[in-house]
Amino acid sequence: MGDIAVVGIDCAFPGAAGVQAYWDLLMRGGDGIGPVPAQRWEAGDFPAVGGSGGFIDDADVFDSDFFSVTPREAAAMDPHHRLLLPCAWRALEDSGRAPGDLAGTETGVFVGVMGGEWGRLTMSDLARVTPLLGAGSSAGMAANRISYHFNFTGPSLAVDTACSSSLVAVHLAAGSLLTGECDTALAGGVNIVLSPSLGMVYGQLGLAAADGRCKPFSADADGIGRSDGVGLVVLRRLDDALADGQRIYAVLRGSAVNQDGRSNGVIAPNRWSQQRVLDSAYRRAGVTPDRVAFVEAHGTGTVLGDAIECAALGAVHGVPRETPCAIGSVKGNLGHTEGAAGIAGLIKTALALHHRIVPASLFADRENPRLRLGERGMRLLKSPMRLPRGESLAGVSSFGMGGTNAHAVLGSAPRTPVAAGARTGAARDAVGVFTVSGDTPEALRRNLAAQAEAVAGRPRGGAAALCWSSNRIKTGLPHRFAVPVRDTDELVAALRRAAGPQDAAWTGGRPWGRPVVAFLFTGQGSEFPGMTAGLHRDSPAYRRHLAEADEALAPHLGTSVRELILGGDERVHRPEFAQPALFAVGYALARTLTSLGITPAAVLGHSLGEYAAAVIAGALSLDEAARLVVRRGALMGELPAGGGMLAAATGPEELAELLAGEPGTVLAALNGPADTVVSGPLEALERIGRALADRGVRVRQLPVSHAFHSPLMAPAAAGLRTEPVRCEPPAVPVASTRHGRMLRHELMDAGYWADQIEEPVLMDTALGALVADVAPTHLIEIGPRGTLLQIAARGGRAAGAELLHPAPGAGATGRELAETVAALYRGGLDPLWEELYAPGHRVVEALSPYVFSSAQRHWDRQALVHTTQPQPAPPQPAGPVAVPPVAVPPVAEPPGAGAHADDPVLLAVVQAVTEVGGYPPERVVREARFYEDLGFDSVMIMQLKNQVEARLPRVGEVSVQQMLPALRSVGSLAAFLDDMLLARSA
Question: Which of 534, 346, 500 is nearest to 429 (CA)?
C-alpha cells in the first residue's frame, strides 16, 4: 500500500473545541464528561440512561450565513451535517490551503456516521414532513453536504459500520487516493447524542456505565458512556504533500477492514477477526508488529470487549521485542463517540506522532489484572511516553457493533530539510503581507482579533513565514484585510488596531471586481546613486529581474549597470549611464509586479520611460530595448553641455510670450493644465524663471544634464533615426506621450524613437487618453522616485484612482512593494504571493482556525424527545408527489415592511422570500442575491414561485423558466414582476 499523508486536522470533542484544546485535554489527563444538558433531554425523565455523558458545547450553533443556508433549511438540517461543514473548512485551512482553492476539483469526502437518529426524530410526524427535512434528515447526505457546499466533484459517501464508521471512512479515502480517484480527501466522522434511545439499548444489554464514563482496561470498567464528537483529517498522497511543502502530522502506512462473520451474535466481538485485521493492516503497511511502539485501542471499557481486544492484541504483539507495546484508549477522556470513535483515536495518534509524545491513558492507574497485559507483551500507558528519534509506528483500532473491524498503521512524518535562509537574520527581517478574510465585516473583525491573540501567544520573531501561510490559507472570502509587516510585534499591533470598531484603515470593504491597473514609467531626472538598493536587498523577485536587465544591457554598455546602480556611483547622473540605469530599474520593477500577478491594463512612459513601457507592452523585446537605450544615452552624452530644463506651475499660454522672447527655448513637457516644463539654454531659463517668479508662479530647475526635448537634441535624434528597430504592435494598450493619445496598431519604430527625443512630452493628454480608455482603479508609478503620481494628482487626471509606488525614493525597501501588493489584494486582486517571498520564507506555519459566528442557533428539543407517546398524525390523502408549498400566512404587515410600503411588489417579494427562507425581513434587502447571499436552491425557487403567485394574484401564473433570468437579486425579481403587471394591465 502506498503512503498517505495526514496534512490537516480539525475536531471538536467534549471539553475540547479544536485540535489544540484536544491535545491539551489529552496531555493533562482531563476528560469531557459532564451532566446531560437540559437542551438534549431531562435526565430525570430517563433514569435508566443515567445523567452523564460527553457533550459538545454549543452543538446547536451553526453559521448558516457563511454557508449560504437559509434559516429554515438550517433548522431542518441534521445537526451532524451542521457540525461537519465548519469542521471541514477548518481542516482544509489546517492543511495549508484556502478551502475555496479546491472548488471544482475532484476532492473526495468520506464521512463515518452511525445511524440516522435525526431522521427518526423528525420524520416520524408525517404532518411536519417537508422537502427540507427530507434532505436534512438523511445520514447519507453527511458527506454530500460538504461536497455540495465546497463544490467538490470527487467521490462523496457516508459510511455506517456503527462504531468503526470513521476509521473505515479513512480506509476508503486512502484507497481512493491511491487509485487516483481524487488527489485530496477529507475523511472522518461525526456523532451527536440527540436522544437517550441508544443509551437505553446499551442499558438493556448491560453495556452502559453507571457513571457515564468509559474506563478502558481498568479494574473499574463497567461499560460505555456515550459522547458527541466530530473530527476530519485531510489526506493526500505522501509524494504530493511533500512536493507541495505541506506540513505532515503523520503518515498512514496501511490499513485494513474485515468482518466478524458468524460469531457468538451479531453484536458480539470476535477475537480471531480482530487478530486477522491487525495482521492484514501490518502486512499492507509493510511492517512487523515488533516495530509498533503503541496502539490506540478500541477500548470501550466493557468487560467482555476489553478482554477480547487484549487477547487479539497480545496474539499479534506478544513477540520478542525490546520494550512492551504500549496501549491506551481515548475513550477514557471522551467517552464513546460511536460513529466518530475511530477518527478520535486516529487524530490522537497523529498528534502523538507529530509531538513525539504519547499521552497517558485515563483510568490506567487501576489496570485490570485479568487482561494479563504484561504476559501478552503490552503495557497500559500510565504516564506520557516520549518517542525516540527516527521513525515511530503506531496502530489504531476501531471495531463496529455489527462486526466490521478496522485497523490503521501510522508512522511519523519524514524529516524534510529546512529551506536555506529560513533561520537567518535576513529571514527575521524580511517583509511580508499578512492577510485575513471574512464573509462579512463583522466576521473579518472577529477573525482579526482571533489572529492577533494567536500571534501574540507565539515566540517573538520574524513574520514572513506567517505572512506566506496567511496568503495561502486566509484569502478566500469577500471582505479582505492585508498589512505589510516584518515581525510578530508589528503584526499583533496591526491586527489589534484593525480589529477595533473605530479603525477601518486596513479593511477597505468588499471589492466587487478585480482592480484595473495602469503602469506609469518615470523618465530621466528621477535617478540617484544607490536607487532601489533597499528593495534589491529585500525582494528576491526584484533582484532576479534587475539581473535580467543588467545581462541585456551589458554587451552594449560594456559595464554592469546593476553594480553602478547599487554601488552609489555618481556617474548615474550622466546620460550614457543614467538612461540604461533608469531603464533597468523600470523594467525590473514592472517585471516584479507582473510576476506577482499584477498585470497592467495599459502602460504610459514619460520620455525615457517609454522604453520600459514598450517592453512590458510587447512592442519591443528586452534585448532590443536595451540596445536602443544604450545607443540613445551614448548619443545624448556626446552632445555639448549647457542646456537645462525648468518646471513651471503654469500653462503653455502664459509661457508663450516668454518663450518667444528667448530663442532656443521650447515647451519640453506638458504634464498638466498648469504643469509645464521648458527646455533650452541655461541663461535663458534663468531669465524665464525670474520673470515667472515675479508673477507669483512656482518654478523649479530640474536636475538634468541637457536640454532634453528641444532642438538641441537634433543630432541625437538623427543618429537614432538611422537605427534598425525590430518592433511589434503593442499587445498591451500604450498611452503615447509622444502623440498624446493611445497607440492602437502603430509600430514604435526608429522614427517614433527619434521624434520622441526632440518633441515635447505630452503627458497630460496621454494620461487623459489612458484614463478614458481603461478607467484605471489603481495607478502604479514605475521608477525610483515619485514624480508621475504627483503630476497625475495635480492635473486632476487620477480622480478616484488609488496611487501606488513600490519604490518611492531613497528610503524605499521591500515594505513599499509589499504595501502595493496589499492594496491591490484589498482592491480585489488575487496575487501570485510566492513571488513576494524568498524560498526560505515559504514555510507552512500554523494559523488560528477560522472563527465562525455563534449568533445563530438551531435546536428544538421539544420536537425531538418525547417522554410520552406522540399522537398519531392524521391520515394523508393519496396522490401524486409534488413540491409542497409553504403556507401563505394571513396578509399582515411583518416587521420591517414599512421600508417597502411605497413599492407593493417589492414588499410582496420580500415577504415571500422571508416565508420560504425563514429570514428576518430586515435581512431581505433589494440587493440580496438569491443563490450567493440567500442560499436558495431549486426546491426553494419552486416554493418562491408559489408564494409570489399567491401574494400577487394579478400577475397570474409565472413559470420558473420565466423567473430564472430575473433571479439575480430580490430587486431584479421585483422589477420583473412589475413589468409583468404592467404587461397584464395593458
Answer: 534
Alpha-carbon span 193 to 200, nearest angstrom:
12
Name the nearest CA neighbour of 125 among 696, 677, 870.
Answer: 870
Positive/negative CA dihedral, 901, 906, 909, 913: negative
Q: Quick one: pLDDT at residue 328?
A: 97
- pLDDT tens digits, one per residue of 562-582: 999 999 999 999 999 999 999
Name the helix (H) or strand (E) containing 437. strand 432-438
Picking from 604, 729, 709, the residue whose alpha carbon sits closest to that of residue 647 is 709
Within 179-270, residue ranges assigned H as helices are 197-205, 238-243
Read off the pLDDT of each residue in 101-122 and give the average, rounded to a whole number: 91
Query: In this predicted structure, what is the pLDDT of residue 670?
Result: 95
- DSSP annotation of 890 reads P
pLDDT value at position 876? 42
Q: What is the rounded CA–CA span in Å between residue 286 and residue 85?
A: 35
What pLDDT, on the 0 to 100 scale, is given for residue 502? 64
**Assigned C-alpha cell, 510:** 468588499
Residue given cell 443515567 in the structure block: 50
β-bridge pairing 517-521 and 778-782? parallel
Q: Tens of pLDDT along 489-515?
A: 999 999 999 998 765 555 556 888 899
Question: What's the rounded mean pLDDT across residues 594-621?
Answer: 97
Which runs of consecutive H residues, i.e. helices, occur in 703-749?
714-721
Residue 82 in this model has a pLDDT that exceeds 90: yes
The residues annotated as belonging to the active site are: 163, 298, 336
Between CA 32 and CA 4 the distance in angstroms is 31
893 has a pLDDT exceeding 90? no
831, 435 Cβ separation under 8 angstroms? no
Structure confidence at residue 504 (pLDDT): 52
Which ranges in 827-937 belong to alpha helices (H)?
Answer: 861-864, 904-917
Q: Around Cβ 698, how many Cβ atoms within 10 Å?
A: 11
* Rounded Cα–Cα distance for residues 432 and 471 (Å): 10
What SS3 class is residue 863? helix
Cβ–Cβ < 8 Å for 53, 46: no
Q: Is the pLDDT of residue 99 over 90?
A: yes
Contact 822, 467 (CB under 8 A): no
H helices then E strands: how many in the chain?
Answer: 35, 28
Q: Quick one: pLDDT at residue 894?
A: 45
Name residues whose C-beta falls within 8 Å of residue 858's C-beta, 6 or more positions apart in sequence.
Answer: 60, 62, 64, 71, 74, 75, 77, 79, 82
Give how far the C-alpha of residue 336 lies from the chain's centroid of Cα atoms, to the nearest Å: 34
CA angle, 56 as apex, 52 and 62 as ends, to 5°?
145
| pLDDT computed for residue 885 by the predictor | 44
Determine phi and psi for 132, rounding to 5 degrees.
-65, -40
Say yes or no to pLDDT of 916 above 80.
Answer: yes
Closest CA to 337 of 350, 327, 348: 348
pLDDT at 39 over 90: no
> Which has the minimum average pLDDT: 303-312, 469-478, 547-556, 882-891?
882-891
Q: How confident is the model at residue 428 (pLDDT cuts 50, 70, 90)?
A: low
CA gap 85, 853 in Å, rounded: 13
> Residue 78: what residue type?
D
For residue 258, what is the DSSP state?
E
* 335 half-sphere exposure, CB direction, 13 A CA radius: 31
- Write out the three cell numbers for 95: 492543511
3-state SS of the chain: helix, strand, coil percent to 5? 45, 15, 40
Question: Is 537 in a helix, a strand, or coil?
Answer: helix
User: What is the mean predicted confidence (pLDDT) over 720-745?
Assistant: 94
For residue 953, give the DSSP letter: G
C-alpha cell at 687: 531669465
Give CA–CA dist 348/11, Å, rounded.
Answer: 11
Alpha-carbon distance of 332 to 214, in angstroms, equals 5
How far is residue 224's CA from residue 213's CA, in Å, rounded to a whole number? 6
3-state SS assignment for residue 327: strand
